[in-house]
Amino acid sequence: MEKRNHHRTPVRVDAILYDKEGHSWPFIVEDVGFDGLFLRWPEQQPMPDDFSIGRLFEIKFSTKASAIDKLYKLEVKVSRILDDALAVEIFNPAVNALINLSREQLKQGLNNQSKNSLDSSSQQILEHVQQVFLKHLSHNADIFFPVARDALFEHAERAKTNSTQLLFFDAISIIDKVKSKLKTDFLNSIEEEFRTCCSQEKNESADSNTGELDLIAQDDFESWLAVNQILVNILPHFEQELLQIQKRLAVLYGIDETSITTHPFSPEIIFKKFAEVVHQYFQNNEIVLVLYHQFE
């Protein structure tokens, strides 16, 4: 069986799958990942044979944030068909190209290389780039905190209940207390990405944790959706720049550029590391989403 290249997490959400002719079928989202969803057929009768590999559909589902139902739509492509389930990919040409490239590399064994080492000259270059990059991120973090504080204050002023208003004021207080530690944790996590850049160490660590997470909460699923949507919007705008960075890293490490599947300059890595750190200090989904969009 082909090993998936992206970590997935279980969830349970009712959804409707539509084709372009307007036909619809009920499904349950049972599994989510950066690149796709796993859909379970919920009916007693057999799943219809209207589905084929590569066919495009639109999936709609809602998640509840506080007392408000939020409706989401995604274009998806069928990638696998089981007797009572479908695996679908989130259809985005830029992201799909990267996913397909990764799968081809796995088949060819390009990701099974040992950790690459740098010569002293290349190491000095990378260390200098790392210092400049982390300094830039540190400056952006300093800009982020007052902007995030203002956004939380605006939400507090618009709150319709005292409890919601108190929630945002508490978040402002937490920001004031932990901003230095949050910034340090974020920069340290990016620095760790530099340490494992272009190596197998990170992938092996991720694989060892696969399957250890329990069923995620509804708020966590909505947070995942928000992060995914931000990345889908951002990545196509930096495609050429990221390819140029990939070429330069390949030269430094003396490896084929197609073997570099991720690196610390990627918006995906930066945003996901930021999200991980934020979740250490903030659990409420409304607060987390405000912080995500300000960081964006």
Report the uncertain regions: 1-6, 110-115, 200-218
Question: How would a textbook summarize the main sheet?
Answer: 6 strands, antiparallel, barrel
- The radius of gyration is 21 Å
Q: Count of DSSP E strands?
A: 6
Principal-axis shape equals flat
- Integer average pLDDT: 76
Walk across the major sheet and give the strand order: 1-2-3-6-5-4
Query: What distance separates the N and C termini?
Result: 37 Å
Tell me the strand percentage band: 15-25%
Question: What are the secondary-structure elements, in order, as H or E?
Answer: EEEEEEHHHHHHHH
Structural class: alpha+beta
Give a written overview of the molecule.
Helices cover 52% and strands 19% of the residues. The protein is built from 8 helices and 6 strands, in the order ββββββαααααααα. The chain has a 6-stranded antiparallel beta barrel. α3 (162-195) packs across α7 (267-281) and α7 (267-281) runs antiparallel to α8 (285-295). The chain starts with 7 loop residues before the first strand and ends with a helix. Residues 1-6, 110-115 and 200-218 have low confidence and may be disordered.
